[in-house]
Amino acid sequence: MENKTKDTVFSIIMMLLGGYVVIESVRMARKAASPPYNITTLSVSPAFLPVILGIALIVFSVILLIMSLVGEKHPAKAFAQHITTFSTRFVAALQTPGILKMIGGVAIMAVLTFLMMGRIPFWIGGTLFMFATMLFLRATKWWKSLLSSIIVMAAMVLLFQVAFGTTLP
Amino acid sequence: MTAQYLLNAILTVLTPINLLFLVLSTTAGLMMGVLPGLSATMAIALLTGLTYNFPTQSALIALIGVYVGSISGGCQSAILLNIPGTPASAATALDGFPIAKQGKGGLGIFLATTVSCLGTIISVIFVLTLTPMLTSMALKFASWEFFLLSIFGILICGAITAQGKAVKGWISGILGLLVAMIGLDTVDTFARFSYGNVNMMSGIQLIPVMIGLFGFPEIVKSFKGDGASEIQKLTKFKAREGFKLVGKNIGTIIRSAFIGVGMGIIPGVGEDVGGWLSYWATKSLSSEEEKQTFGTGNPRGVISAETGNNACIGGAIIPVLSLAVPGSAPAAVLLAAFLMHGYRPGPLLMTESPDFVYNVGIYLVFAAIAMWVIALLMAKVTVRVLRMNKKILMPIIYVLCIIGSYLINYNMFDIKVMFAFGIVGMFLSYMDCPPAPFLLGVILGPMADSNLRRALRLSDGSFAPMFQRPICIVFLIVIAAMILSQLGVFRQLKKVNTRRKTA
Questions:
Q1: Residue B417 scores a pLDDT above 90
Q2: pLDDT at residue A9, as a whole number
Q3: How far apart, in whole angstroms, are the C-alpha atoms of residue B327 and residue A34?
Q4: Which of the residues A12, A31, A44, A62 would you substitute to probe the B interface, choosing the one with the greatest number of B C-beta atoms within 10 Å?
Q5: Can you tell me the mean pLDDT for A136-164?
Q6: Residue B441 forms part of a structural domain
Q7: Which of A10, A43, A104 sits opposite B456 (nearest CB)?
Q8: Nearest-CA distance from B459 to chain A in Å?
Q9: Do the Cβ atoms of A50 and B453 come within 8 Å?
Q10: Do B389 and A60 lie within an 8 Å CB cutoff?
Q11: Which of A30, B172, B198, B472 could form a disulfide with B438 if both were Cys (CB 3.0 to 4.6 A apart)?
């Protein structure tokens, strides 16, 4: 994808984020001005640096947006074109096998991170995750995947739990 | 007396048991440094517990060995895998990985390891001889200077890593600074961006962010079969060629070591900043023609970054010994380890335990030499580990990333933070936005925030004192010049001037 297209979309997202940060920081400043904090001067308020950072984010995003549209005869048209191109290519990319594999992999990682951790012992969750991911990616034969997952997990438990005396998740 | 202390320290480290501890700890440190997600801080923290029952000197040797090993080991995965093993080696990856891609992985690792050793040894000279002078220089920094120093660090990092689009690097740095704002602020304990979540109130830990930003995208890319995360070969090379390159760049090494020590001595500014600043200085001082080769496999990039980050080790230890103020995160853990083993670093150290400074200096030298030998011998093993089928290796690395995120605080929340910042890292990577300034923002954010607020409190909210301090004025001029030059303002002014002259 053309760099200018990415820059346009990135700058818009960052501008929105900058706007949110400024609004949230103003709320923070108001809260800091009330009891028990009573900090009424903005420059000594805990919200001061976040406000500055939010404004800086907006300013730099505007500069990036201008840079991505410099040299275009019709900047407004070019802006709309960049947004359309990005959306079309993003949707198209979601249907390619490589991206689908990435999404599948991230989903398996999310299952381990959010559903298994803390609910089942780490050595079971970790082994299952490694085996499932290797299987999903067709890394090697299934029994080799299973064996390597078990060996690696045993080594990790030995190193961290037995040798270093730490507690695994 | 000094010679006696030095001789005693050498004899102590040369006993068989201490040599064994040195070799084992340096190897463990190297392995920790090589594996992405296992940081120097964590390595020292893990070993601190393990060495609790060791004889004091053996424990100190082991701790220093693991420190030097883990900081140096990060370069191997940075060069072969394009994933910095530790944040300290992030700058190394910029030129190290392209060197490996050119089929010179072996040479890249030799260079990085050799200059790492030299950087550490040069820093020891500072630890032993220039400690008082450097300490007094660092003591001149007050809140305003620390604030401007952190902003300067982020701007430099953004300008270096954004490959011609500094604005993107700066945006990335601002995002990192914003992440550092999450949690209770250090001055008023006011909860910022916490949304009532207790875990968020205690702030976002650095290690999960680092693992997420740098490790996660590489893991996910490997699922796709993307060549970008390909593990490069450790090719054969002639040692003479490596030594020649080191010899040719001796000036770069000395300059980078100076920068590294200088950055290390300033509290809170760690090995990563030392690496970045050294890299930036080398790039800036190069000819216009050579500047274009940085980021494409210029050996001077690797040499400056690795010398700089390793020289920080000695630099970071100087304030630990003289002021009991750590120069970096790993040095903070080391300080705790020193205290645990009965030493009281600080102004009274030289009267209470005068031999301690010399012991630390000598242990650092031996650790650097041991690291050089072991790292070069171990490189083949490292490659075997890193050269495994990516689809087998990456799930294993993700499990290590989980362990690395968890062990810092033994908190499940940190694992989720790592995953979340992994998604952020993927987004930044997709948008061609460098993640390094983001990480630096997270590292330097607390320093910037607390120092700015402290300074403003002392001046009743006025910025006037900032413009009355010489060091601040230098910082402000450099920052303004950097922003204006990166935005092309000087170029435009030059064009206008030329047009006027021709008219």
A1: yes
A2: 92
A3: 37
A4: A44
A5: 88
A6: yes
A7: A43
A8: 10
A9: no
A10: no
A11: B172
Residue B228 has a pLDDT of: 45
Alpha helix segments (H runs only) across chain A: 3-33, 48-69, 75-93, 97-110, 122-136, 142-156
Q: How many CB atoms lie within 10 A of CB B226?
A: 15
Q: Decide if pLDDT at B298 tops 50.
A: yes
To the nearest whole angstrom, how far is the Cα of B396 from the nearest Cα of chain A?
7
Yes or no: say if B203 and B358 are a contact pair by the CB < 8 Å rule. Answer: no
pLDDT, chain A, mean: 89
Count of domains for chain B: 1
Candidates B44, B163, B171, B216, partner chain A, best to mutate (most A CBs within 10 A): B171
Residues of chain A with C-beta less than 8 angstroms from the C-beta of B394? 133
Q: Do B406 and A169 touch (CB under 8 A)?
A: yes
- B238 neighbors B296 (Cβ within 8 angstroms): no
What is chain B's mean pLDDT, rounded?
83
Least confident of A148-152, B239-243, B355-359: B239-243
pLDDT value at residue B37: 56
From the list B83, B69, B24, B74, the residue with the least C-alpha distance to B50 is B24
Q: Answer with the residue of higher pLDDT: A134 or B405.
A: A134
**B455-485: burial string, b at 16+ Cβ within 10 Å, e else:** bbbebeeeeeebeebeebeebbeeeeebbee
pLDDT at residue B230 above 70?
Answer: no
Interface A-B, measured as beta-carbon pairs within 8 A, has a size of 166
Question: Rounded to whole angstroms, how far apart are CA atoms A140 and B311?
Answer: 43
Residue in the block written with tokens 């976040």: A50
Q: Is B432 left (phi over 0), alpha (psi -120 to 50) or beta?
A: left
Q: Which residue in A14, A31, A104 is closest to B171 by CB distance?
A: A14
pLDDT at position B133 = 66
Tell me which residue range forms the domain holding B306: 2-454
